[in-house]
Automatic annotation (TrEMBL):
Residues 318-413 form the Histidine kinase/HSP90-like ATPase domain. This is histidine kinase. Its EC number is 2.7.13.3. Pfam families: DUF7134, HATPase_c, HisKA_3. Keywords: ATP-binding, Kinase, Membrane, Nucleotide-binding, Phosphoprotein, Transferase, Transmembrane, Transmembrane helix, Two-component regulatory system. Gene3D superfamilies: 1.20.5.1930, Histidine kinase-like ATPase, C-terminal domain. The keyword Lipid metabolism does not apply. It comes from Micromonospora viridifaciens.
Length: 423
């Protein structure tokens, strides 16, 4: 038997030690080790001998906590440096720990005030260190030298702190925008589901009215014309089954919506304007009105080509409304994004088990000032409507340019065609 292919999934794991990233811990250990090395290396030759070395090792140990407790580390290092000054040992190699602590408190402290205070203390330390320098140069020359180094370290820490806070603010802003985007997407989905529910409610109400009329007809004709009564009873049964199916879909729409998938931007379109007028709130369009809809979009500036393949089958009212809305939204998006003058090829492909709505534009129009009114919220609305009838929707750039929308809607196995005749 052939070996089955093995799918490998790479997973990135951030290694944490002591509650901190391993890389940061390793770097701090290396810095502390360098300071300790300076302290131990001068144990014999430096002033103070092993006592000075212990001071340097103490500075190295506290530097391990410079990220989590920068202010406390700066205080401890300053106290140890003061001990060194009081002992008269003068500047030593491990005094680099003072600069590292100064940099850390400016970069990591919660308040910049701590960094300013640390800078002032460091300025005083510069003067004291310069007074202990032994050599032919004047003390003020050493003070200027130490001051320039200390000032450069302080400014470097301030620059890094500013950049770090700026990056954090950008990340927080991006997270806020992402939450707002998800909230808007959820609101758009909820609004569209409410609209679909209202339209399905109208479909069910119409079916109920048909059933009542046909049931009354059965009651009055069952004795005089049994054949007509049987036909009316069949209409009642077919309409009832169809109404029950629409009611099931209505209940599914009214359930708590799942988390919407991210969309680039919901196509929220304002009310009627220009030469195109939206349908009244409680009117249910039908596919026989597609030519009039296409004429309105042609008048608005789209060059719409329309073709059908296969034999059109009678559709339940709710499914027919969904096909109409998908066509309307596809043309609206083409007018909005492809622009006036763009060419759109619209087709309805009928088969025994499904109807496929396909709209492809060339994207070569000019921007439209007043877009056509939408029947919902663009891709969000189409996705919700198609999902109600277990269909599928694909939308994206076409290979030759422009945009392509394709919706496939399954047809019911036994659509009730008598309802329209009896109504």
């Amino acid at each position: 038997m052939a070996d089955k292919p093995v799918r490998v999934r790479w997973v990135t794991v951030d290694r944490i030690i002591f509650g901190r990233p391993l890389r940061s811990v390793a770097f701090d250990v290396a810095v502390a080790g360098l300071v300790a090395l300076f302290a131990v290396a001068g144990a014999v030759a430096q002033p103070g001998g092993w006592k000075a070395t212990l001071v340097g090792v103490g500075m190295a140990l506290v530097l391990l906590f410079r990220r989590t407790h920068p202010s406390a580390v700066a205080v401890v290092v300053a106290v140890l440096a003061l001990v060194q000054v009081i002992a008269g040992w003068g500047p030593l190699g491990y005094d680099i720990a003072v600069l590292i602590a100064l940099y850390s408190v400016v970069k990591y402290a919660d308040r910049l005030r701590d960094g300013v205070l640390a800078g002032a203390v460091a300025a005083g330390g510069v003067v004291l260190a310069a007074l202990q320098v032994r050599g032919p140069a004047a003390w003020w020359a050493s003070a200027i030298y130490f001051g320039l180094i200390t000032g450069a370290v302080w400014l470097m820490g301030l620059n890094v702190r500013t950049r770090r806070l700026y990056v954090l603010s950008l990340e927080e802003r991006a997270a806020t925008l992402e939450r707002e985007r998800e909230a808007e997407a959820r609101a758009a989905v909820a609004e569209e589901r409410t609209r679909i529910a209202r339209e399905l409610h109208d479909v069910v109400a119409h079916s109920m009215a048909v059933m009542i009329v046909q049931a009354d007809g059965v009651r009055f004709t069952i004795d005089r014309d049994p054949a007509t009564a049987r036909a009316a009873a069949k209409v009642v049964a077919d309409t009832g089954r169809q109404a029950l199916e629409e009611m099931r879909r209505l209940v599914g729409v009214l359930r708590e919506p799942s988390r919407p998938e991210p969309v680039a931007a919901p196509d929220v379109v304002a009310g009627p304007d220009g030469g195109l007028s939206a349908e009244p709130a409680h009117r249910r369009p039908a596919l026989v009105e597609l030519p009039a809809l296409l004429d309105r979009f042609r008048a608005a500036g789209l060059r719409v080509g329309y073709a059908t393949t296969g034999v059109a089958a009678p559709l339940p009212p709710g499914l027919e409304l969904t096909v109409y809305r998908v066509v309307q939204e596809s043309l609206t998006n083409a007018l909005k994004h492809a622009g006036v003058g763009a060419s759109v090829e619209l087709s309805l492909d009928w088969s025994a088990d499904a109807v496929v709505v396909r709209a492809v534009d060339d994207g070569r129009g000019r921007p439209v000032v007043r877009p056509a009114p939408s029947g919902g919220h663009g891709l969000v609305g189409m996705r919700e409507r198609v999902g109600v009838y277990d269909g599928s929707l694909t939308a994206g750039p076409a290979l030759a340019g422009g945009w392509r929308v394709e919706a496939r809607l399954p047809l019911p196995s036994a659509p009730g065609t008598e309802q329209g005749e009896a109504a």
